[in-house]
Amino acid sequence: MNVDTGITSEVFTIKSETKLIDIFNRIIDKKSKAVFDYIESLNFNENKRIIVIGTYFTGVGIVKRLSEKYKNILLIDIYPHLEELLHTDLGGGPINNVDFSTDLNLIYSGDVVIDTTGFGGINVEQSSKFDVDTFIIEDPVAEDNDELLAEKNNIHERLDVVKAKDKAIIKTKGINTKTSGTMTLTIGALTNLLNSFIEKEGVLYCACEMGFYEEVIFKEMNIEKFIELTSVNAFKVSTIKPFDLDELIAEEISKITSEMI
């Protein structure tokens, strides 16, 4: 436990050993494991051409996990700078054995296609042109608790028009967030944890190290800065009675489930 004195000797500052990037990675790991296990169940040849569409953040985790076994993987994204995520610790260790392209014409060049683009991504017309062995799509909705998002969600229409022997949906939920995005789930977990910490006897206040990193990634296009900002202790709590933050973080993240349906 990381404990320091606060303003006075009677008040302590406790910090989580868990870093913000660790929370991202634990959530990404749940998604990538679900996909990996599903693909393994299909008994594919290791040289099957696997196309993953979308990097942020599910895609990068999936390709890193799949690259442990499969040899012919292409990650496609319209944002060229997101290739840098392959060489960071987000979603797994840095890798160099996955190809990257911004050419959307290549989305049809695989035997297996994994679409993680969610809202505003690959549309129904584009989806109708797929004729593949396996097609997997990520459901951007988590708990079905927002009517507008439910109306916007067109993954079932996209999946219906795809020609594929095997089709599956990545469904991630568990902590009452509106969407299943890793950023959304992380913020949801952080919010839930802050609320639980402040309710503990003896806690003065608490804070988490979270910013609106979407701007850093997509406006500033600064991946190095994003990794630096998230490589910090996730929580700091001022309290007169120290407790184990990391145990509670693990409990919260354990509520998140990701499965193939």
UniProtKB/TrEMBL annotation:
A Pfam family name for this chain? HcgC
Superkingdom field: Archaea
Protein name (record):
DUF1188 domain-containing protein
Tell me what organism the protein belongs to: Methanobrevibacter thaueri
The lineage, from the top, is: Archaea, Methanobacteriati, Methanobacteriota, Methanomada group, Methanobacteria
